[in-house]
């Protein structure tokens, strides 16, 4: 079994391939190659934050927008976590979206209904 030669990255001395430490300068040569993949976070807490914001948004509509944004970000980051909390992220998006849609509808109704009432009142007023 022939041993290939390699060179120390520190002092450039020739060393055997299976050498762990350079015999000349003592620098570790067989440094383990770490996985380049980014270390995953344990829990995607942002998903829970988004979910809570979505729930708060049911009572205070403006939280829904924050809930929606946070939940979408959390959903996109899901793959970076061991515990992605994907269900919370999806629930946060769905709840926020529903509340926002209902909020927009009720806001529009709040603008349109008085106008309709005013028109009807005007018509009846003119009729009398
Ligand atoms: Zn060396």
Total strands: the figure is 4
The sequence of SSEs as H and E is EEEHHEH
Helix content: 55-70%
Mean pLDDT rating:
85
What are the segments in which pLDDT stays under 50 over at least 5 consecutive residues?
Answer: none
Using the CA coordinates, give the radius of gyration. Answer: 32 Å
Derived from helix and strand composition plus strand pairing, the structural class reads mainly alpha
Order of strands across the biggest sheet? 1-2
User: What is the molecular shape?
Assistant: rod-shaped
What can you see in these coordinates?
This protein is mostly helical and 128 residues long. The chain has two domains: 1-39, no CATH class; 41-124. The chain has three helices and four strands, in the order E-E-E-H-H-E-H. It has helices at residues 45-59, 62-76, 86-127, and strands spanning 5-7, 14-16, 41-43, 81-83. Strands 1-2 form a two-stranded antiparallel ribbon. Helix 1 (45-59) packs parallel to helix 3. The longest helix has 42 residues, at 86-127. It is rod-shaped and about 110 Å long. 21% of the residues are buried. The model has no long low-confidence stretch (mean pLDDT 85). The chain binds zinc ion (ZN).
């Amino acid at each position: 079994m022939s041993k290939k030669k390699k060179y120390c990255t520190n002092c450039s001395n020739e060393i055997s391939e299976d050498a762990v430490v350079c015999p000349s300068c003592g620098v570790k040569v067989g440094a383990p190659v770490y996985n380049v993949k980014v270390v995953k976070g344990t829990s995607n807490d942002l998903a829970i934050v988004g979910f809570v914001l979505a729930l708060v948004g049911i009572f205070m509509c403006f939280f829904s927008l924050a809930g929606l944004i946070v939940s979408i970000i959390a959903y996109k980051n899901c793959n970076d976590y061991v515990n992605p909390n994907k269900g919370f992220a999806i629930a946060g998006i769905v709840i926020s979206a529903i509340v926002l849609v209902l909020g927009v509808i009720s806001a529009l109704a709040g603008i349109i209904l008085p106008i309709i009432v005013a028109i009807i009142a005007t018509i009846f007023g003119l009729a009398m």
